[in-house]
Amino acid sequence: MAPGLPLPEAQAKAAALTTEIQALLAAGPSAWVGVAKPETPAPGLVAVAAPFPGKKSDWKGYDRYEFDVEGHVASVVVPKSAAKGKPWVWHGEFFGHKPDPDVALLGKGFHIVYLKVNDMLGCPAAVQYWNGLYKVLTEQYGLGAKPALVGLSRGGLYCYNWAIANPDKVSCIYADAPVCDFKSWPGGKGKGKGDPKNWQLVLKLWGFKDEMELRPTRGIRWTTSNSWRSARCRCSMSMAMRMMWCLGTRTPA
To answer: Within its chain, how far is the Cα of 70 from the centroid?
Structure first.
């Protein structure tokens, strides 16, 4: 190792550097040589804020944002240009399964939404989480007041139970082989074999001590879908008709 400068010489150099630094600080960045200057935006270019917070990723060529709402991950896929009124589609479960309809609706200006509350099977707590996301999306981000719900399989439990609790906030439901009575699935009390593991989860989520407390049960079943329809909610439109309407190929019945 090379020997250092004698102490008096080192002190003199340190004092000179201190004087130089103080002079540069006093002069400001314009006097600094070799320091990167902040770039000035090109004329006519304005920074655009992200429409939603959180993690941004690509989904089928569209921007997808994932952010926390009350401890659960909400996903919103954003159209290139939102349709009038900012309509949106809300999936109960299995977001991304057979995505072609969602891609088509994105092309027509719909937002696509999913809230990750897996293994809650549309229970009252899940309905409350949906209420929280609905409030955030409509009040903070201006999405339309009446989303279209997509209930695929067990996703039907989320969609119908939320619709029963909020009949004035639903435009329509597309139900694809939906679970409409948890005594049928996962309970296996009908023709199906059921799912014992998820049946125990139902008893826990709804707070039932045993199966006897299921009679009568307040919540989704075939009869309540009729009461929901009578509450001025349009639930009879098939997905095919809905899609043709959204894509401008026919007028809804």
So the answer is: 12
